[in-house]
Design a protein that fits this description.
The protein is an alpha+beta fold and about 240 residues long. A hairpin with an 8-residue loop joins strand 1 and strand 2.
Length: about 240
Amino acid sequence: MHELSPAGRLAAWGNAALSGAVSPDEAADRVTGTTDPGHRVVGLPSEDGPVNLAYAFGRLRALGATGLRLVLSRPGDPGGLPGPAQFTESAVACGEAVLTTGAAQVGLLAQGRGMWSAERVDPDRRTPLSLADAEKHVGQVMREAAEVLARLDVAQWGPAAADVLSLRSRARAPELPPSVTPAAHRLLDQAMRIATIVELARSNPGAAVTATEMRARTEVLRDLDAAARRAVEAACSAQPV
């Protein structure tokens, strides 16, 4: 995970637009970037056809949306999705979804480059993971994984791994709106580094040779991946301050 996905950018900058921290046009530009086409949203309530992203932000606010929440789901790990079942299945297949908070009850799914579908979702009464809780969970998982990672000899993965683990790699350009708390920026950076560790580890067998070592390695990488995803969700769902 070297940069935010479109859904991550949509949640982060959509929150800024819904709160008034940035204009809908600026938020839309930040979501699409310099290479993506202008994004369109189809299926918004009371809209007959696709609308541009800036208009969609305004429409969601009119429907009662107070914010957007990112969900990064995986097969067997649909946590954070409120249903209905068809939406959950589609979101798991996509690997990500954006949900409104507040009264709107709308879910957004990527449908190919530059296109989003909006669907009604069930009421979501769960409390999203806070930045503090996400940071605490990431730290706990990293501490529990440290001994296993040491046995795997991460240096064998190549110089890039050592840079990631020692935080010597070059800082990334900010991807979150400046209106969110610095804690969200720090958490996102940490989560993306962990995701890089998982990616590097999965591309190299490391020093694990026995079945027990391979099983331990797989479990650690699974836990790290889940913690990184939860942290990215929390960072991108953070409300402007």
